[in-house]
Amino acid sequence: MIEVPLVDLNSQYRRYKKEIDAAVAEVLESGNFILGSRAHEFEVAFAEFCNAKQCVGVGNGTDALILALQALGIGADDEVITTPWTFMATVEAICCVGARPVFADINPINYCIEPRQIPALVTEKTKAVIPVHIYGYLVDMDAIMRVAGEHKLKVIEDAAQAHGAERLVRRESGQSWRAGSCGDVATFSFYPSKNLGAYGDAGAITTNNEQLAHRLRELRNHGTLKKNLHHGMGWNSRLDALQAAVLLVKLRHLTEWNAKRLRLAEWYNRELTAIAKSVGVEIVCPSPVNAPSHVFHLYTIRVPKRDELVDYLQQQGIGCAIYYPVALHQQPALKKLGVASSPLPYAERAAKEVVSLPLCPELSEANQNRIVELIQAFFKR
Ligand SMILES: *Cc1c(COP(=O)(O)O)cnc(C)c1O
Fold first, then answer.
1. Which of 7, 67, 90 to mutate to test the pocket of ligand 1 (most atoms within 8 A of CB)?
2. Ligand 1 residue neighbourhood (C-beta within 6 Å)
3. CA dihedral defined by 81, 62, 294, 253, rounded to 10 degrees?
């Protein structure tokens, strides 16, 4: 039985029950369930949170990616460069619009796409790059934007794991990169376990491009902004009012939650580094970072004997998990589509060695202690 879950949504709900229940009841009373004023209010608040001009609420993070690609005019015969180290949805979206994913290997320290790998993969067909802020770590967007600029590629940030991640740009003091405001467009998921999670499926797209936002608003709602006047074909992928109401409540707490995640991650780093030294094993912790460039959606380490450690921890009731056991370029679904890839050694090594430990703002000190003690006991055996 799992006693310490990877993410503890129950505790979170109990703590904010009053605020959340009131917001939900208000929507139920209003009788407006699709988009409406709650969704609009959330879009305004989330755009501001991301430092972006526009936010378009959609049904989920996968739709957000599909609509973003479509709005940028990416489709059949186009190529999109992305990372093999992400959730399947990133690549599904590329395939869904008829384009072909091309994989660049990752940086072994932060697990994000390595910008230096990109130029060699660009062909006449390459239209865009999708960097993913994996585990909550903001990709080196300076480098991505430079490469994209040189090759005239659109940039779609997959920010599904990185709500609130931000890094100062030193050369222009004061200016910062914030997830959701760096590329041409950015996509977010509010899947319940994400740093900002709904109570069901929900997603959003942010952009500084007003025209693109307009097109996205049409696309998400059957190609229409005005009932029964359709300017094109679209989809049904709208943010629902109940989810928007929940997200508005949670957004108020997100900065505090992200700060707590960072503190817990720093504690893990300190304890695990000490354990590694004392028992003489190599545990690779996330590199120390300045807040808030990492919002620690997941706290992921690399260890020897990974599979045995996962079994051991799970037997002891610790809900650790592997993100991801198979890199995307090696997934059967992509092989079936004939997406060939050269070996990507860093992604392949990560698939064998990573494990994510429980981390969420509700993780107690006692449980975090227990986790590191168990890891020490495992390596001492
Ligand atoms: C969760 C996630 C998605 C998909 O979001 P859904 O809301 O589940 O559709 C896409 N990309 C990444 C990196 C994710 O973590």
1. 90
2. 60-62, 86-87, 89-90, 132, 158, 160-161, 189, 191, 201, 203
3. 160
Give CA–CA dist 21/365, Å, rounded. Answer: 28
Mean pLDDT to the nearest integer, 263-271 = 96
Reported as a pLDDT band with limits 50, 70 and 90, residue 53 is very high
Distance CA 297, CA 294 (A): 8
Q: Which residues of 3-23 are buried (b: 16+ CB within 10 A; e: fewer)?
A: ebbbbbeeebeeebeeebeeb
Alpha carbon nearest to ligand 1 atom 5, residue: 61
pLDDT in tens, 311-360: 999 999 999 999 999 999 999 998 888 887 889 999 999 999 999 999 99
Calculate mean pLDDT across residues 160-178.
81
**Closest ligand 1 atom, CA of 191?**
7
- Closest to 136 in 3D by CA, of 108, 167, 104, 105: 167
The structure's pTM equals 0.97
Q: Residues 11, 26, 195, 84: what is their CA dihedral angle, to the nearest 10 degrees?
A: 130
Angle (deg, nearest 10), helices 210-219 and 61-71: 120
**Helix 241-251, helix 9-30: angle, nearest 10:** 130
pLDDT at 171 over 60: no
Nearest to 111 by CA among 239, 300, 254, 261: 300
The C-alpha atoms of residue 308 and residue 305 are separated, in whole angstroms, by 6
| Angle, CA 199 vertex, CA 12 and CA 358 arms, to 5° | 45
